[in-house]
TrEMBL record:
Catalytic residues (UniProt): D11
Gene Ontology biological process terms from the UniProt entry: carbohydrate metabolic process; DNA repair; glycolate biosynthetic process
GO molecular function, one term: phosphoglycolate phosphatase activity
Protein name stated in the entry: Phosphoglycolate phosphatase
Keywords tagged on the record: Carbohydrate metabolism, Hydrolase, Magnesium, Metal-binding
Protein's UniProt keywords contain Phosphoprotein: no
Superkingdom of source: Bacteria
Cofactors (names): Mg(2+)
Function: Specifically catalyzes the dephosphorylation of 2-phosphoglycolate. Is involved in the dissimilation of the intracellular 2-phosphoglycolate formed during the DNA repair of 3'-phosphoglycolate ends, a major class of DNA lesions induced by oxidative stress.
Enzyme category, top tier: hydrolase
Organism from which the protein derives: Methylocystis bryophila
Pathway in which this enzyme or protein is active: Organic acid metabolism; glycolate biosynthesis; glycolate from 2-phosphoglycolate: step 1/1
Family: Belongs to the HAD-like hydrolase superfamily. CbbY/CbbZ/Gph/YieH family.
Amino acid sequence: MTERAPTIVFDLDGTLADTAPDLVATLNTLLLRENLPPQRIETARPFVGAGARALLERGFAAAGAPLGEMRASELLAEFLEFYEAQIADETRLFPGAERSLDRFQEAGFRLAVCTNKTERLAQRLLKRLGVADRFGAICGRETFAHMKPDGRALLSTIGRVGGDPARAVMVGDSQTDVAAARNAGAPVVAVDFGYSDPPVATFRPDRLISHFDELWDAAAGLLR
């Protein structure tokens, strides 16, 4: 190891936590209010990965009522307000995630989150899930002047925990995460249980895992 311990940086939605149930429930609250058919979780799950606005636009389009730009902006503010109130009603960490965080923490890794969710919502969600204290930094879309897939968002997150970019790994579930890692010059592990459409393997991450129990070996292999 170098002087500084290695760093592992996680995406949040679709990587650490299955947030789709609460996000889709919030979408359905707005759809029902507009007298539109709610979307089934199985149908709307792939809508989740690109952010709240994209979820709204894709959800309303699927319900037969495409949104204009102004109406989407109006609904986004309401969506975020409703979502915050129920942010962890049904959201859960993916199987093995907490155990994996503990293992990396016990081994001396610096842990951080780099998400395109707002920092405030990311902080709130991780506190509700009981794991916020595992992370030296929880960085969102407004934390820095840049957000993923800009590699500077990842590099700034690594810097915030005092990490070394040459000893850091990104863990994510989407093209955005893979691109952010590539743009930062960092290796990336992708989880195949997230929200990517098409499958995240399409974007050729350095490692692909199907369960958090596989993350230790994947990350260790990339850091050797």
